[in-house]
Amino acid sequence: MTRKKEQLLSFVALIVLAILTYLAQNYLDNYKLRILNLGAIYATLGVSLNLIFGFTGQFSLGHAGFMAIGAYTTALLIMPPMYKEMTFIIEPLIWPLNVLQLPFIVALLLGGLFAAILAILIGLPVLRLKGDYLGIATLGFAEIVRVIANNIPQVTNGALGLKGIPQYTNLWWTMGFAVLTVFIVKRLISSSYGRALMAIRENEIAAEAIGVNLTYHKVMSFTISAFFAGIGGGLLASLLTTIDPRAFMFIMTFNVLIVVVIGGLGSITGTVIAAFLFNFCLEYLRPIEEGFSLGPLSIPEVPGLRMVTFSLLLLVVILFKQNGLMGEIEFTWKGFFRFLSRFKANRPMKGEGM
Amino acid sequence: MSLSIFLQNIANGLSLGSLYALIAIGYTMVYGILRLINFAHGDIFMLSTYFVFYGILIFSLPWWLSFIIAIILTAFTGMLTERIAYRPLRKAPKISLLISAIGVSFFLENAGVVVFSGIPKSFARPELFDTMLIFKDIRISTINIVSFIISIIFLMALLYIVYKTKTGLAMRAISVDVETSKLMAIDVNKTISITFGIGSALAAVGGVLWALKYPQIFPFMGIIPGLKAFIAAVVGGIGNIPGAMLGGFILGLTEIMLVGFMPELSGYRDAFAFLILILILLFKPDGLLGKNVQEKV
Questions:
Q1: Nearest to A323 among B93, B102, B104 (CB)
Q2: What residues of A are in the B interface, CB distance below 8 Å?
């Protein structure tokens, strides 16, 4: 298959996705839309974490911190001044923020930008650390961000959090950014930069020996990853309409990490699939704990049962699919048609030239 | 700040530090052997407090007996999690092992909500631990002294096991090189199991003392102490047992001192531990007592 043909197919797929998004946005109920939105946001978050962890090999557990930056920035910039006055009852919001209101897209991009700037500041000293030490230091930064958010009520409204954030997030935004993230990360890792990142992942010393600037590439990857984490946080804030510092505990990072590892570390396709599966599972397991009646038998509400089931499911998946669902395999059109041809003919065709 | 308050803070810090040290041991031992950050360790710690709670409340056992039973039960739970969730992943990528640990952590926390209910329970403190010792104008609660002494005893016992017994030798051998250890006829699975048992037992000791010090227990109580104990392990150099003890005491003391000297910063208490961690890592990337392993090319 030629490159041109593949590009054409990708373009057609994009149009199909747009039509599906249109249909979903107009005909699905809010509950289902919310799940799809969450799935798309997790795809953005997961793919961005995969860039720094899966492709660059730098164990970063700071995603929740960057998301918090993006979420608070976006929320504070899109809330109407009147709402802000009603929300900040303990301490009034400091000056420029209390009168400022910007369009959603500007707020989102600023949120991503601030997260990226913080990533450069943190990344320069911290990315010298290796392996688990790096993971725990970045986790530490995320927790520090959260604790600071808890302690500056004049900006974040402290532990009470922000309520009444306008709900601009819809499927167009979330799907749009998911596609954009996938596109940019895919282009990046196929470029010479991407080769350098993967060289760092495989062997830092060898990469340095052939002239890869370690600091530059690691910080670049970390910054781009943080940018999309910030955008994801902003989308999440406007989807949920309420945020508080507890939402950005390290559990949030773990959720994204689960998505990345279950999907397959180093596979964008896997991350996207796992992002949607993760949210479908969490939502559709909800009836388990709500209690139901089977004829005369009524099962009472059991809080916590949903997460118990979910964690068991997670354990089963990781125990039996130790490299994640996709491993390092990516979706390609070639592979797709080879897969289809298995069903088409009675005799299996073994991947000869399409 | 007067001298007496300063000394009280020292006592408080030492007792908190000894608890961090007890929990940190479990992290560091498991990391030393499996290179796994066992995120479920804080929840093992939580379980031990419930074992004591139910031992006293439902089976109306005397407190000391329920302490011992809780420690044994927790050790077995720790070994069980290893058997079910970590052993099958021995050859898997390290990150899958970590996800499995996160899964176990989620499971224990939420099973805790299902079985024990999410509402915090108050822990009946035996009267013995409810008194204050008063030297002139220094007031120190008994539990601070008791927890410090008990911790030191258990930490000494651990050092004896690790550095003077054959099992300890096996543990240390595995932490250096698993394959060679196998060739030396060390039963790797059994040794790892024992490691989890010992680590969990020490977490249980920490848990029981924690519940005596802060007598309110709930299914998510293990998260923050677990995280801080883990920081303590990293500060000391993860994989290094004396390092974990040192890290625990450093963390406990500085945390109490921060709140004591600058009460206006007490809201930043949880961030402070991380700040220490990051500063130490920037200057000593392998922790205070960690070995600097140079990668060979």
A1: B93
A2: 125-126, 128-130, 132-133, 135-137, 139-141, 143-144, 147-148, 150-151, 205-206, 250, 254, 257-258, 261-262, 265, 302-308, 310-312, 314-315, 318-319, 322-324
Q: pLDDT digits over B21-30, tens only?
A: 999 999 999 9
CB of B179 within 8 Å of any CB in chain A?
A: no
A222 neighbors A52 (Cβ within 8 angstroms): yes
The pLDDT of residue B292 is 65
Does B267 have pLDDT greater than 50?
yes
Classify residue A294: in a domain, yes or no: no
B chain contacts of residue A151, beta-carbon cutoff 8 Å: 267-268
- Length, in residues, of chain B: 297
What's CA B272's distance to the chain center, in Å?
Answer: 19
3 state SS of B123? coil
β-strand partners of A297: A294
- Any domain includes A351: no
Judged against a pLDDT cut of 50, whether residue A351 lies above it is answered with no
Q: Does B263 touch chain A (CB under 8 A)?
A: no
- Do A323 and B281 make contact, defined as CB atoms within 8 angstroms? no
Q: Is the pLDDT of residue B286 over 60?
A: yes
Domain containing residue A230: 3-288+303-344
* Tokens of residue A175, six digits: 């799907």
How far is Cα B66 from Cα A92, in angstroms, rounded to an integer? 52
Flag if B278 and A323 touch (Cβ within 8 Å).
Answer: no
What's the CATH code, domain B3-283?
1.10.3470
**Residue ranges of domains in chain B:** 3-283
Based on the structure, what is the number of domains in chain A? 1
B contacts of A303 (beta carbons < 8 Å): 113-114, 117-118
Taking an 8 Å cut-off on Cβ atoms, the answer to whether B230 and A261 are in contact is no
User: Are the beta carbons of A225 and A119 closer than 8 angstroms?
Assistant: yes
Q: For residue B126, which of B102, B156, B146, B104 has the smallest C-alpha distance?
A: B146
pTM: 0.90
Q: What is the mean pLDDT of chain A?
A: 89
Per-residue pLDDT reduced to its tens digit, A240-249: 999 999 999 9
The pLDDT score that the predictor gives to residue A256 is 95
Residue A224 placed within a domain:
yes
Of B44, B93, B90, give the one whose Cα is nearest residue A323.
B93
How many inter-chain contacts (A to B, CB under 8 Å) are there?
127
